[in-house]
Design brief:
By secondary structure, this protein is an alpha+beta fold. It has a single domain, classed as Gamma-glutamyl cyclotransferase-like (Hypothetical upf0131 protein ytfp). The protein contains 5 helices and 13 strands. The two termini are 32 Å apart.
Length: 223
């Protein structure tokens, strides 16, 4: 059994998804966000990787890239037109209901583009068993230069979580032109728990999900 401090940390990690991100482009190193060096960063040998959820948060990167603590990772602020960030129809191995993308005409989602080295990319991909790597066109504005290009992105294998007939956007991601209903992580996690295992408390549900290594589920219906 976990002690009270460990239990609180487990629940907090689930409830605080997708975690805090800087409002600007930055250089990730040693678990922290640093200012980018003057001029364009050297991206030689790096593959652009879109992040719309936790992968742009220094807290999450610190866990995922712990084996390469001193290796720099440029993380660039950008915009993704025609898509929104919604909850995926699964619970992650750490107990959160995580994100995916869906097409949403007229919506522009704030995202980041990571530029990992091959070893960093391998570590990130190893943490995404519920996602496939696909390519998307990205409309970006970085250092006042606008461009459209192809980037890789983790796309949920389970599709969007449907609540009362609609995908549900992440309230923590402030997309422009959003037309979908939105909820924060505590609210969506409570709805999922009530639908799947109402006999459990929220903490018990998170711990049970972790013990199972995560889980997928069918669309939610009105309760």
């Amino acid at each position: 059994m976990a002690d009270s401090g460990e239990a609180a940390a487990i629940l907090r990690r689930a409830l605080e998804y997708p975690y805090a991100t800087p409002e600007r482009s930055y250089l990730y190193r040693d678990g922290e966000a640093h200012e980018l060096p003057a001029g364009d960063p050297d991206l030689t040998g790096r593959t652009p990787l879109l992040s719309y959820g936790a992968n742009a948060a220094p807290e999450a990167l610190a866990r995922k890239l712990a084996a390469l603590p001193s290796e720099d990772l440029p993380v660039m602020r950008a915009e993704l037109e025609g898509y929104d960030v919604v909850y995926s129809a699964h619970v992650s191995p750490y107990g959160a209901v995580p994100a995916t993308l869906i097409e949403s005409p007229g919506t522009t989602a704030p995202v980041f583009v990571l530029h990992p080295t091959a070893p960093q990319r391998a570590l990130l991909t190893a943490t995404e068993p519920n996602y496939d790597l696909v390519e998307l066109p990205l409309s970006s504005a970085m250092r006042a230069k606008e461009a459209t290009r192809q980037v890789e992105v983790y796309w949920s294998k389970h599709g969007p979580l449907m609540l009362d007939g609609s995908a549900v956007a992440l309230a923590a991601i402030r997309s422009a032109g959003r037309t979908l209903p939105e909820l924060d992580e505590p609210a969506i996690l409570k709805r999922v728990r009530a639908h799947l295992e109402p006999q459990l408390s929220l903490e018990q549900f998170v711990r049970a999900s972790i013990a199972r290594g995560g889980m997928s589920f069918p669309p939610l219906v009105p309760l």
